[in-house]
Amino acid sequence: MIGKLKKLLALKPNNIVMLIEVWFKLFLAWLSFSCLPQSTATRIWFRENAVDIKQEMSPPNSDKEAVVRDIVKLLQIAVSHHIANLTCLHRVLVLKNVLKKKGITASIIIGVRKDKSKLAAHAWLQIGNDVIDDQKSYTDQFKPLNDQNSANLIFLNTQKKN
User: Fold this and answer.
1) What pLDDT does residue 6 have?
2) Which of 24, 86, 91, 160 has its CA 20 to 30 A from that of 30?
3) For the CA atoms of 20, 25, 31, 34, what is the dihedral angle to 10 degrees?
């Protein structure tokens, strides 16, 4: 416990503030998806993040790369010390939100794969073709749902349930 506190205090003051902000945003994302109908929570968070699955991004310059690395590291710290059971979707929505505040545009990618008889899904962030919050070897196992036909299929399936 003391070792963790020392690591926390070793952070720069602005990073401590950012860590607290990320922790609370993760909590809000978890709470939204836990207490609200999924369609409502999704609409709120995706509107907040202005998600456009066809949007093209250019890779960041070296200054932005350092900011992205720092924010991803703070997010990982917040996730590892969180009280909520967070999913990849919670993480990417919060990370995209924090990056957007810093003027950095990233794309949310949602991918699927078939595991035996089940369909598995995973969400991650990319800037250009670079995965920024996950291992590329892991995200490569999923087929991104980033074309218009896939987006329409997801939209139609969610509309049938509501």
Assistant:
1) 67
2) 160
3) -130
